[in-house]
Structures are given as structure tokens and as C-alpha cells.
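Notes on consecutive records. When two proteins share a document, each keeps its own sequence and its own C-alpha cell line. Never mix them. Below: protein one.
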Amino acid sequence: MYEHIKELESRIQNESEKINLLKKEISKAVVGQEYMVERLIIGLLTGGHILIEGLPGLAKTLTVNSLAKAVSAEFKRIQFTPDMLPADLIGTNVFNPKDGTFTPRKGPVFSNIILADEINRAPAKVQSALLEVMQEKQVTLAGESFTLEPPFLVLATQNPIEQEGTYPLPEAQVDRFMMKLKISYPSKEEEREIINRVTAFDTMIDLKAVLSVKEILSFGQLIKDVYLDEKIKDYIVNLVDATRNPQDYHLESLRPLIEVGASPRATLTLAIASKAYAFVQGKGFVSPQHIKMVAHDVLRHRILISYEAEAEEKTADDLIDTLLSEIPVP
């Protein structure tokens, strides 16, 4: 087994160098935001959709657009508004009066990377249409099904401070996102670099495609081969189960703070995301540290905190910190 892991890790290190090239290419257009870039790459490699929460002006759209250019993938940006219809998203059948037939006109979801900008501004019907496509990875128009070509990745953004005129995503639908990212302000040094780039008006940034869609899909197979030890699997299961039954792990203080624990989808996603993170780091096996690095992103939108937690000004991230510090590590 050890020799197999060493051989796999050697292959992974060679391929992960291409991931470093991808990060370097994106950094030509995006200053900082390494955390967001790395998580978007993990989503792309695993086909896991990502919900990005951050204030305006934090380069969310620029980062997604840059990622699409750097991997030579088809990219579509959809600005969600309250007057949108599902047909604006998935398409519709257009009547041809000359021969009396209907022709399917495909919507913007027929692409590799979709940026669903301000997804919480669209009504429930539109949100449901997108989330159904995310789950099934196919679209049905007038009884005819169209399969979306891989890779297919939805990156949705939402503004955490605006509540008027928004339609919050139901918890059951948010669960379909592999990860939820919380994006923060850049550092002062990064902000100074942004000024330097923006004020150099004669500088045009032309990103090159450093990876192909075919290579991205091949990486997915390598990620499946990343070794996940039985003790590591138990650790993942314990972390998720502790969100439902904290008293079983001597964490009785968390019981009144958690309204609903994470779903079984969290267990699967945590395993997949940690394997992808190990791959990006050039490792052939998953360690507890890899799990801890992605645990907040996988769990924060899957734990519903109680009113008591809100009264104590506790967030889901605070509860995850407690779990990671108290659950025994293998």
C-alpha cells in the first residue's frame, strides 16, 4: 500500500504543477484572493458547485471569469433579477410559423462555468430551475432532455448585507452547494497593488489558457485515486455526526446552539473536497489537516444555528471551530 501511495503521489505532484501554473496565470488578473481561487479550482476539479458570499467589489466576478479563460472553458455570467423567468435561464422552445414547428433555443446554462450573480435576487422558481440543473446536470425543454457537457460548474454569489428585494435560498437548496465561501477585504499591501494595476491604463492583461478541459477531466480521475484511510473516514463521519449529536462527543454545550445538523451530503462532500485539496497540495493521501482546511467551507451552510446561538452571537463557523478542536484526530 505504501509503495502504491508513493507512486500515486509522484504522479500527482507532476500534475499539481499544472495547478500552480493555473493559479499563477489567474494572479495576473486577480490580486490576492488565494483562498477563493484555490476553492474555485477544487470545485472545478470535482464538479462541485460553490456559493460565494462577499461584499461588492471583492473581485468575485473577475476571479471566475479569469478561471474560465485560464482553462479554456466556456463561461456565461447571469445577472439574477426579481423579474427573471426560468426560461431566461434554461431556454425555451421557439415557434417557427413557416413550417409550424418548435425549435429549442438553449439558455445560458448550456456552458462549462456559470456565474450566477446575486442568486438571492431571483424568485424561487428561477432558483429552483438552476438548482435542479445543478443536481441533474441536464435540461428538459418540451419533453426533450439535453445533457450538459462536463465540466459543468455553477458559481453563485450573494451579498451578505442587502436584505430588501432578495429571496434567501432555502436551507435544503443551499445544501446542494459543495462549499460556501466567505470572502473578506484584501490586505493593505494587496489594495496598494490593485491601485498600481488599475492606474496603469496602458497595461492590458491577456490571460492565456494554461489547461484544457480534457486535462481538467483527467485530474478528476487522479483525485478519485487519492488514498482515504479508514481512520480518516471515521474522523469525517464523527465530525458530521457531532453536528447532529454533540452530546455523544462530550459537547453538551453545543446541543442548544444547533437547530439542525449537517446532512449526509456533508459527509460525502467533505471526503471529496479533502481529496481534491490533497491533490492540489501535491499529496497522494488525505491527512486530518486537509480535512480541517476545507471543513468550514463544507459545513458552514449545512449547520442551522438556533436562536440561542444567535443571542450569544455565535456563528456556524464558531461551532465548527469547537468541533475541530474537540473531536479526536486519528
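Protein two starts on the next line and is unrelated to protein one.
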Amino acid sequence: MNFSNTVKEEIIGKPIKDKCCKKAFLAGLMRGNGKLFSRGEYLGLDFYVYGENTAILAANFLSSVYGYEIREMSTTYRKDKKEKFVISIFGDKAAEILKDLNILTVDGEDTAVNLNIFSGVCEKECCFRAFFKGLFISVGNITVPDEESSLNTGYHLELVFSHYAPALLASEKLSEFGVTTKITRRKDNFIVYIKSAEEIKNFIAFVGAPVSVLKLTERMINREVSNNSNRQANCDLGNVNRQIEATEKHLAAIKKLKSSGEFDKLKPELQKTALNRELYSDDTLSELAERMNITKSCLNHRLRKITEFANKDQG
């Protein structure tokens, strides 16, 4: 399984419970590759997904949110033998769904596609996350270097749009959530893309796939190790994985404290430690302790205090 599919399977495997987020997820799917059509006086929309689990999820959301039962679904296969499900919504109910998701706007007798992709479906952070989950599943792709290859293929994530306006909106919104992207044009499409492995991890974390974040981190480390025999000889991958997990835990605690307004309540030395942990997130504990001119034991103690303070109200 390629890495894109790994991320998408993790996203699909996590349930979306809130109605508002289900709507946002559907909007992301349909916005990604939906195609409008008409039969007589009725409007309809075709959109496709890969994999039976994704098709079932989309059908379930249409049923639970709108009471719409899928009547048309065709299947084809790509060259890699992955099954493609084309889902059709049609008739009076389809028009209702498309208007409710603000994919279509109505002004008198005029109906037009709304290029404001977030309009009416994304007001809370959870909904934006759900929207980008659907969008990534629909038109997203990630390429990462083979950890055993010496080829310099690089890291690449992209989301494909048919118009510039929604591409710009997506890029700006991701920036608000701490994910830096760029935009380029490829033939008739506009591509929101990321070339940084760290930013790709930020995006994957934003769409709720933490296991994939760790897998990408491990792959990055393995690739570096394979290209540096000296480091490979001295690297204990199990310890590195534990270090990665500990660092992610520390960074999550710091982020929680900042978002909850509790960060300023930390003692000055803990605030300084937290800011250094964020700034030098790739440092080992020994490297960070040396940088801060404290002992590793002292650093461990401070990080443990920060984590305990962030989690004091849980459970």
C-alpha cells in the first residue's frame, strides 16, 4: 500500500460522529471531484471514491444526514487494480443536498456553483478538519521517498483544484491551522502543494492521522540512517521511536496549554523549556539539555511537569 492510501485508510477508520462534520466531510468529497449533470429539469452530481470502505462511508453519511439512499453506483478499476466507485445523486433530493452544502447557490431562477468551498459547512475547527479529510480522500496525494532507495525523489503532498479561488481559500485556511502550503498551476488545474516533510506531517496530523505521522517520521529516520552508515551503526531505532513519541507528547501538551490559555501560568523556567522544545523539536534530550545549559535529568523533570500540568484536568 502506498503512503497516500495508508493515510486515507486511517482517516476512513476513525468515525465522524457530529452531523456538522459529516456534512463538511461530504462537501470535501464532492468539491474534490464532483461533476454536475442534468436530466430534463433535474440536477445531479457524480463523484468518485476509491475503495469499498470509503464508498460505504459516503453512502452512510448521505443516508444519515439527508435520508438519501444511493440508487446509482458504478465501479471500475485503475491500473493498480484499486476499485473506483462512482456515486450519483439525482433528483429533487440531490438539488436539496447541493444547496444545503452550498455547492450550488440560487439567485431567483439562476443557479451557479459556489466557489467559496467553506461557505455554510465550515464554522468550527472540527468541521474544517472534516472538510479537509474528505478533500484529501477525494483529490489528495502524498509521495514520499522509498526509505531504502538512494534516489532523491523528495517529499510531496498535493490537493488538486479546478479553479484558483478555492485553491487560494484552502491554502489560506491551512495556514491558519499551522500548515504552510504553496500554489502552482498544472495545465487546467491549480495545485495546493507541500514539499517539506515536516509540513506534510503537520497536514497529516491536522486531518487526524497520528499513526501515519509516526510512520512518516520513522520512514524519514530510516532513510537518513540508510544514507549514513555511521549514524546507522549508532542508532537504536526502538529508542528513536520512543524519543519521537515522547517529543510528540511534549509538543501536544505545550499546544494544549497555549490553546487553553494556561501557558502563562507555568513557571518561567517551564515556559522557557517549552519554547525551546518547540523551537528545537528535532533535538534529542541530550542536545536540548546542552543547548539550554542544564542537565538531561533537569530537562526531563521540567518536561514531565509541563505534561502533568497540561493533563491535570483530564479524567
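For the record: The chain has 13 helices and ten strands.
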